[in-house]
Specification:
Rossmann fold, 3 domains, alpha/beta, 16 helices, binds nicotinamide-adenine-dinucleotide, N-(1-d-carboxylethyl)-l-norvaline Dehydrogenase, domain 2, 6-stranded parallel sheet
Length: 477
């Protein structure tokens, strides 16, 4: 049975580094408004570390847990191990200096001191497109041994519907000997999807409603109280009926985007056949408030949108639209290669440049990037593939099976294919590529680029002839 919460000083000198009127630090924390406690965040990656910094900023004492000793050591010096998230380094340094942030590789130590545990390690996809639970199961088993009665455990990693209650609940019970959903003698358990976008996490945490659901009413209420006290005050917290609704909401919002993009890609292929500009079509269609057609492109990358539909499909094989959409988006690379191949009359021995290897511009992440199958497919047809990405070193490009191209160096490329919409590509002087015949604009971001007459432009759903007709009157093509 838990005792009544009592205020505790947060730091050695008895002050908590927070202005007067800020929440009281109590132990144990039971969700009373105006109070904060101790939270363990398991997984100090691109999402977990910003979450930890956010919670500390609202006065929570945060213990970050990660299996990488270098990461733990850096964090314990108040330094970050990646620097791409605006504001992160400053927030971590401030939380560390105020005594509200520490890190450890020992789950049991962190969890046994925590009122709330937030789990944010990745759930991967196997080669068979099924959830690969190895990392999640290991992290769950490690945290279970430290669980105390009354602790709230929140899964934020995107999960197939039902996993919080049916997979991780029993695993936590097994490892801790405690019952799930019992606030006095057991632990509380809920799910809250992480909906942020890398590169603007703090803004998203402040503006997107935080969806949350418990495995029972008390777990849901405690989770709601946690997020109200730990997220920016401007953030809405929406308590859904149960953990399954919260799990499903994340899969629904991401799968919606995959399906919508697949529809745009299918429309784009038809537009190519009809010599119509798909961008004009979409702009026109979306001028009516019920139409929200997304943009077509050379494919969908990153570890969210191409992955989560498979989490749905793993439990709901009947979702044919979801499955077909995934296939349509995957096929975009083959479609692009076919257009280039046809335009050049074959690819055997042809030097081709691929621009942009990360899954999107400005994010150094190769997970599920469509550049990798693009390079593979071009090479399969005999092309000699070179590549450039401003975020990758020559060695990293070589590991993607392409020859690194030093930016601006003259080369006999006969085709250039862009895989990201990096604005840098607009600075290319295509006149310098004397052999160039084809520009395939995989993100439709180069429609206005000046092209020598001998170069044919192909966008996704923007046939060569249409683009020229569109651009010619402005005098740019
Ligand atoms: N990255 C995104 O843009 C994004 C957006 C929304 C939601 N998400 C969700 O967040 C999850 C995590 O994503 P991420 O980008 O932070 O991943 P990441 O790979 O950047 O970080 C994961 C961290 O977990 C650590 N880890 C692995 N096993 C562990 C264990 N047993 N105990 C403790 N730490 C362990 C790793 O060392 C790593 O530091 C995703 O799987 C997804 O569900 C991610």
């Amino acid at each position: 049975m838990r005792t009544e919460p009592t205020p505790v000083p947060n730091t050695e000198n008895g002050t908590d580094g927070l202005p007067a009127g800020q929440p009281r630090h109590v132990s144990p924390w039971t969700g009373e408004p105006g109070t904060v406690g101790t939270v363990a965040v398991v997984g100090m990656g691109k999402i977990g570390l910003p979450l930890a910094a956010q919670y500390a900023e609202r006065g929570w004492h945060v213990i970050g847990v990660d299996v990488l000793p270098d990461v733990v050591a850096k964090l314990n010096e108040g330094r970050v191990h990646f620097d791409e998230e605006p504001g992160l380094a400053e927030k971590v340094a401030a939380a560390h200096a105020a005594g509200r942030f520490e890190a450890t590789a020992v789950h049991r130590d962190a969890v046994s001191r925590a009122d709330v545990v937030v789990m944010i390690v990745p759930l991967m996809l196997s080669d068979e497109q099924e959830p690969d639970y190895r990392i999640m199961d290991r992290a769950t088993a490690a945290l279970a041994v430290g669980l105390r009665a009354g602790t709230l455990v929140l899964y934020e990693t995107t999960l197939p519907v039902g996993d919080t209650r049916r997979r991780f609940g029993p695993a936590l019970e097994h490892g801790s000997g405690l019952r799930a959903g019992d606030p006095d003698l057991g632990f509380l358990l809920g799910f809250s999807p992480e909906r942020v976008y890398s590169g603007r996490i703090f803004r998203d945490l402040a503006t997107y409603p935080k969806l949350v659901g418990g495995i029972d009413a008390e777990s849901g209420r405690r989770a709601e109280a946690f997020y109200r006290s730990a997220l920016p005050e401007s953030a809405e917290v929406w308590l859904l009926s149960n953990a399954e609704a919260a799990e499903f909401a994340k899969l629904a919002e991401t799968t919606y985007r995959d399906v919508n993009i697949a529809l745009a890609n299918e429309f784009a292929r038809y537009a190519e056949r009809m010599n119509v500009d798909i961008l004009e079509v979409i702009r026109g269609a979306n001028s009516q408030p019920f139409s929200h057609i997304h943009q077509p492109g050379i494919g969908v990358g990153g570890h969210c949108i191409p992955v989560y539909p498979h989490f749905l499909l793993s439990r709901a094989k009947e979702m044919e639209i979801v499955e077909t959409s995934r296939r349509t988006n995957q096929d975009q690379v083959g479609h692009a290669v076919k257009i280039v191949q046809t335009a050049l009359g074959g690819l055997e021995g042809v030097p081709v440049l691929v621009l942009g290897l990360t899954y999107r511009e400005n994010v150094k992440e190769l997970a599920y990037s469509r550049a990798l199958p693009l390079i593979e497919r071009l090479a399969f047809h005999g092309a000699r593939v070179s590549a450039y990405d401003p975020l990758l070193t020559a060695e990293e490009i070589e590991r993607c099976c392409a020859a690194p191209w030093p930016w601006g160096e003259p080369a006999p490329f006969r085709a250039i294919v862009t895989q990201t919409a990096d604005p840098l590509w607009r600075q290319l002087d295509l006149g310098a590529f004397r052999e160039l015949e084809v520009l395939y604009d995989g993100r439709n971001s180069l429609r206005e680029l000046a092209l020598p007459d001998r170069v044919s432009y192909f966008g996704v759903g923007v046939p060569s002839r249409v683009r020229r007709a569109t651009v010619a009157p402005t005098g740019r093509s």
